[in-house]
Write a structure and sequence with these properties.
Largest interface: A-B, 111 and 147 residues
Number of helices of chain A: 8
Largest sheet of chain B: 5 strands, parallel
Oligomer: heterodimer
Strand content of chain A: 15-25%
Shape of chain A: extended
Radius of gyration of chain A: 27 Å
Helix content of chain B: 40-55%
Helix content of chain A: 25-40%
CATH architecture of one domain in chain B: Alpha-Beta Barrel
Order of helices and strands of chain A: HHHHHHEEHEEEEEH
Structural class of chain B: alpha/beta
Number of helices of chain B: 20
Number of strands of chain A: 7
Number of strands of chain B: 8
Distance between the termini of chain B: 41 Å
CATH topology of one domain in chain B: 7-stranded beta/alpha barrel
Shape of chain B: globular
Radius of gyration of chain B: 24 Å
Largest sheet of chain A: 4 strands, antiparallel
Strand order of the largest sheet of chain A: 4-3-6-7
CATH class of one domain in chain B: Alpha Beta
Order of helices and strands of chain B: EHEHHHHEHHHEHEEHHHHEHEHHHHHH
Chain lengths: 275, 531
């Protein structure tokens, strides 16, 4: 196992499909990029891998923030970047090599604490947390046996449109507590989404017991949206990360093979690399 | 000097509070000892070297309150000396074992020399207090030290209980002032986690700047004219700096980043797994094979075959890589300046522990980078975030969006099937703490002691590290145990207050264990937090 092996074993995400790339191009910045000469050059160069390589080797291609278009390689790199960082950050907490079984220890009892019995929730609780664009986490916790006593409870996620509650998805509540991830349209404003627990009565009317929205910090300016939207969709996010970077430039480090085991330590040195 | 552009190196140094006086030795305390050995002491060594040589350099560095608490803890300081001594003793025998080995022998000699240097640095020069040299660098202006959440609580997910964010910030600033002697101008938001409205809270605490991942700037409303190459102001005032993805990638990327070079030291090969001998056994914990910090091999290439590590080759490669990095930054600022009509700032933030702990030669790379930047060119100049803000008069105001620097760019690392169970418990405990703070607005003696300890337990439970570890799977058993323990302790303390039955013995025992933040004031959790 090595730093490099750990890269190999990470499942690679698929490169974005051309259609998705097209959609990403629709973003404002990409549109600007399409207009720019630099972007046109870049687009032409993408026609073949060789052309791209040739372009990279000729001159440092450094489009500005406003002049770029998504590049397949760079988008994929952006996808991997977060994984790399997560892996490196997790090395802080590593006590064994990657791929080996984590250390298992029995901790001697300390202070006679029964930590396995988690504190009981003090009240009814329903929570709605955003995980990422298009995904919300919903949690409900009722008093013991409440889900049985209050028969036919339903958990439903919906959005408020023109003072009407439009149900996005609903499920039957069969346990006192539980969690569920809901998928929604990422363009739906966060502050219009609500989670409800209640029950349907005979005439089909929904009797609401508890409700919550996504709780977000109050902002200073009244006109500022109260967490109304995600910044970007996931596709846009990948595109934006790519756009924040300048393309990989020609390197001034010439490829040098690693010293071999036949080298005597201290006698042979890797040749110094001059710019 | 009028540089074409500026470069801001930002290092985020953080570890969760791990201190177990109840055990003679505790495996997870090694996280701190390894980081001291490979990151914090080497960084101080290079920063002091640069200062002594009169080299211009600037670094913005966050030292989190938990890390500062561990750095100043006498028990951990004493245990770190033991950590060094046990390694030095083992290395003495290792030297005999590898005496005839032309490959491993010199590496063992290198480690023996290195651990002796570190011991001298820590014990003789710093008198076991690594905060003092950080403070000295802060006072001489080369290092700008910023704060973070008190226990690295992840703000976007704590926002359901806003008092928790106030408490995290309040305790962070108190700790920063107590230990470093000054009020922080900036903050590293835990995991760069941001939601609109955090800027308002930061402004209330007098924080002037923070950092966001690139999409947090580029996705702002309106989109900033200069992208991530110029800070922006949030509606409440604090400025946000955006990460430059390219310079980050050159270091972070495992595939094409510098740390993956074949001559660099291999992180995963360790004598704790390679050597079966009684003297190595002394470095293990209760016979369990774990990392010892003695890593004899270089990356070499893919596969299990690894060749011996050669520090000098690696050092030369670090110099080449620093040269390459600077070359790319020169081109970058030249281009950006031509587009922007003003000097850009390249903000390159990293986990500090990447340098040294993960990438062993990283501190040397920083050393070479600043020396080359100072002497070999005049286009790129090192600058701190606060200095750049002082130079910037026309900063745009935008509404930055919800974001983080975690994988995927949002909250998935800290909210997923492995760790979502913690949030209802954290929110419940948070609300209960705020209720107790309101019930006892001016608690004295035992009540005060219980409330302060309850606040410590809750802050410790809120550390984002536990959720992160559950997701990444490195030390899950420990992370789960920690969060359950702090929630359990909080619950028992709250019960004591509500029932009036105080268990002094228990209170004393947990106060000894979870001993950080001696200046705790539980009212940081009240509805009107004391700032």
């Amino acid at each position: 196992m090595s730093k490099r092996d750990s890269v190999e074993k990470t499942p690679t995400k698929k490169a974005k499909k051309p259609k998705e790339i097209k959609e990403a191009k629709k973003s404002k910045e990409a549109k600007k990029a399409m207009k720019s000469k630099a972007a046109k050059k870049s687009k032409d160069a993408k026609k073949s891998k060789d052309a791209k390589k040739a372009m990279k080797s000729k001159e440092p291609n450094v489009p500005s923030v406003a002049e770029r278009e998504p590049d397949l390689d760079m988008v994929e790199e952006a996808n991997h970047a977060g994984d790399d960082e997560q892996r490196i950050e997790s090395a802080k907490y590593a006590t064994t090599p990657a791929g080996t079984s984590p250390v298992y220890r029995r901790y001697p009892a300390d202070l006679g604490e029964d930590i396995e019995t988690l504190p009981r929730l003090r009240t009814h609780r329903i929570i709605l947390l955003p995980q990422k664009p298009g995904i919300l986490y919903a949690y409900w916790g009722l008093k013991p046996d409440e889900s049985q006593q209050m028969q036919n409870l339903t958990l439903r996620l919906g959005r408020l449109v023109d003072k009407r509650f439009e149900v996005i998805e609903e499920i039957a509540v069969r346990r006192d507590s539980g969690g569920r991830y809901f998928q929604i349209n990422p363009n739906v404003p966060q502050d219009s989404v609500f989670l409800q627990i209640g029950r349907y009565v005979e005439d089909g009317k929904f009797v609401l017991e508890w409700s919550t929205g996504i709780v977000r910090a109050r902002q200073l300016l009244a006109e500022a949206p109260l967490g109304t939207k995600w910044a970007l969709t996931m596709d846009e996010f990948e595109s934006v990360r790519e756009n924040s970077a300048l393309k990989q430039r020609e390197s001034n480090v010439s490829p040098v093979s690693s010293p071999t085991s036949l080298d005597s330590l201290g006698r042979e040195r890797v040749s110094r690399l001059d710019p | 000097m009028n540089p074409t552009g500026y470069f801001a190196l930002v290092l985020h140094a953080h570890l969760p509070f791990v201190r177990h006086p109840e055990y003679e030795r505790f495996l997870e305390e090694d996280w701190f000892f390894e980081a001291l050995t490979e990151t914090y002491l080497p960084l101080l060594e290079i920063f002091e070297g640069l200062r002594n040589d009169g080299v211009h350099f600037r670094t913005t560095m966050s030292l989190t309150p938990t890390l500062l608490s561990m750095m100043t803890d006498p028990l951990l300081q004493q245990r770190y000396v033991s950590y060094l001594d046990t390694r030095l003793a083992a290395l003495e025998t290792e030297r005999t074992r590898t005496a005839g080995d032309q490959y491993l022998g010199p590496v063992v000699e290198y480690y023996q020399k290195r651990f002796n240097q570190l011991r001298t640095q820590f014990v003789d020069r710093y008198q076991r207090d690594v905060v003092q040299p950080f403070r000295s660098l802060l006072e001489s202006g080369q290092l700008e030290i910023i704060t973070c959440g008190a226990t690295h609580g992840y703000f976007p997910l704590l926002a359901t209980h806003e008092e928790s964010i106030y408490a995290q910030l309040s305790m962070a600033i108190r700790t920063h002032q107590r230990i470093l002697g000054h009020r922080p101008a900036g903050i590293w938001l835990p995991e760069c986690g941001y939601i609109p409205g955090i800027d308002r809270i930061l402004a209330e605490f007098g924080i002037d700047f923070f950092f966001l991942d690139s999409h947090g700037i580029l996705g702002a409303d309106p989109p900033p004219r200069h992208g991530v190459y110029c800070p922006v102001r949030t509606p409440s005032g604090p400025a946000a700096f955006g990460r430059d993805y390219e310079s980050s990638k050159q270091v972070w990327s495992a595939e094409e980043g510098y740390p993956g070079d074949p001559v660099y030291r291999e992180f995963y090969r360790d004598a704790g797994f390679d050597v079966d001998a009684p003297h190595i056994e002394t470095l293990r914990h209760a016979g369990i094979k774990t990392f010892t910090g003695l890593k004899y091999h270089r990356i070499t290439g893919r596969g299990d075959w690894k060749e011996a590590y050669h520090p000098e080759w690696a050092r030369d490669r670090a110099a080449s890589h620093a040269d390459n990095f600077l070359f790319n930054r020169q081109h970058q600022v030249r281009w950006l300046n031509s587009q922007m009509g003003r000097p850009p700032i390249i903000v390159a933030p990293y986990d500090a522990e990447l340098f040294g702990h993960w990438w062993y030669e990283g501190p040397q790379w920083i050393d070479f980078l600043f020396r080359k930047m100072a002497y070999d060119q005049d286009e790129v100049r090192a600058i701190s975030a606060a200095e750049f803000l002082r130079l910037s008069s026309d900063v745009e105001t935008v509404v930055a969006p919800e974001c983080s620097w975690g994988a995927g760019g949002y909250h998935e690392v800290w909210l997923n099937g492995t760790n979502d169970w913690i949030y209802p418990l954290l929110f419940d405990a948070g609300e209960r703490m705020s209720r107790l703070a309101s019930m006892f607005p001016d608690a004295k003696e035992t009540h005060r002691w219980i409330l302060d300890q309850a606040a410590r337990e809750l802050l410790l439970a809120q550390s984002s590290d536990w959720a992160f570890i559950m997701k990444t799977g490195t030390s899950v058993e420990y992370a789960v145990r920690r969060i359950k323990t702090h929630l359990h302790r909080f619950d028992r303390l709250a019960n004591m207050l509500e029932s009036g039955h105080v268990d002094h013995g228990y209170l004393e025992a947990i106060a000894e264990r979870d001993s950080l933040f001696p200046d705790m004031d539980y009212r940081i959790f009240s509805k009107r937090p004391c700032l």
